[in-house]
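Incident log entry.

Two folding requests arrived from the same account within the same minute. Monitoring flagged them as a possible duplicate submission, but the sequences differ. Recording both here for audit purposes.

Request one:
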Amino acid sequence: MKKEEFLITTNLIFQSLLNDNKNNYSKKQIEQIYSIDIENYINSNSEVSSLIKDKQNIKNLIHILLSIINLNQNKLNKDLNIYLKENLFDEETIFIKLNSMLKKVNLSFSLKNSIEPNLEKNSEFFIDSIWICLSELISNKYFLKICNYPKCEIIFSSRRKSSSYCNSKCQTRAKSYRAYHSNEEINKVIKKEISDTSNNTNNEEVVRLEPENYFIPEQYDVDFGFFDNEIDKKRILGS
């Protein structure tokens, strides 16, 4: 199993566990990043489709995967326990669980291409291929992460421990998200200061600065605070 296939599969499995609270943003991002249509991909891959229905196996997989992410990801602004509704594994338990899964894997080997022979390993079950690929990613020093943009729940891999976003669009939108919510906090402080001064029992003259002229939308806009106009938005995001 290749790394991209592993990431597509694990993301589809993860999304299937979140079906009580569907994240359409993440699903659209998966389709754009990997150039797939999710429904068509699942329907055309019987092994993926069967695995998504295998609740016990996918629960074990996601539990270990999120535990690994929690262990390695810096500045994670998500509580991964809420996805599992149980405690994450510690480092020692992660490897005990992973090794117990690997012990059950049955591998066969074959040579492909008589001109330039390549040794291929094959597993009996699709879930075995996932365990093998996960172990290989760890041994090859890949960091498994979950996107740090609050509206995104995509699992991705990176060679850099400092990576925080699954793609550049989420990084851009995270900036606008922070701008929006930081202005919310500023407004709360301003309202409190106004309230405090209006309740001032002393007859002191209060000097106030002119209010800033800026507009905050009533509902959060993913691109708030970043783009001056639609032309700049399309130029940077490409859509």
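Request two (distinct sequence, not a duplicate):
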Amino acid sequence: MRIGFFLNTQDPPMAERIVEVWEQNLRLAEIGDEEGLDWIGLGEHHFRDDAQMPAPLVAAAAIAARTRRIGIVTTISIGTLWQPLRLAEEAAVVDVLSAGRFTLGLGLGNYEPELTAFGVAKRDQARVFEEVLDIVDRATAGERFSYEGRFFRVPELRVTPIPVQRPFPVWLGGMSAPGVERAARRGRPLLLDPLHTIDELVPWVERYRAACATHGTRADVRLLRYGWVSEDPDEARDAWWPMIRDNVWNYFVVVPRFSAEGSTGVLREARSAADLPMEPFVADRFLVGDPAEAADRLADWGRRLGTEDVLVKLEGEAGPRGEPTERAVRALAAAKRLLA
């Protein structure tokens, strides 16, 4: 299996230490590269007080300069917010700078204030996204092309530089029937979210594979998860869980995108994030344990979803930072070696 991690780019509450956060992120990228991990992922959001990543391709270029072999992927960039020629140009530059190690993971986006700020009407976002994908595919192919769409018009031109990788790799996020269908129709890897249990994702994977068969495309599943891998059995509960349980609470209660499957009793008893115990959420949702336990769980997820690629977010918004996270990256790499 190909295993990696995606970076925490947030510094709550007001990004006072964002320079230090990025110094650590670049160090983590170096460690992941040295330890033989396969992927580093970067998300995208805008206008957040904690400076959550608004410029993932800029960060990807910095990571490319500090690493030699690890793949770099956006998990995910919000394709609807980009001018597609600019997106294609920047992606091609990062691919050249990394000597062919960059992958563009794209999603539709679902946060309406971001869409509004970038001038995209919610009712148009799916059609805008389709046109962005059309243009990125053509612009990264290295040939002259033109395009006439409802939202974008491209006169005949050729985008340079040409990416090292051709066809240029694009993954598509999908959390809905149209998203799954889009990835299958376009013959792109389906990037599965970290918010649902593995059991809940199985039907989406089945639907994706059936749609790929209909369209004559190749099915390829990639998976995002949250987790903490450590030789210390208490570290996940004592150091990691307090840093992410606010996220869990938010996705269950405030912005209900986590499902409550298997967790209804816990939620009924909880009055705040501080009341949430870690254990009920681990089995089918988080990668938590020592390297051997993590390897077993990764292998199980790979069998159930038919995936060879898993990226894990090791930190919550506020941490853990520093040495514990460096150890967790090394422990994740140890889990990968056990899978070999």
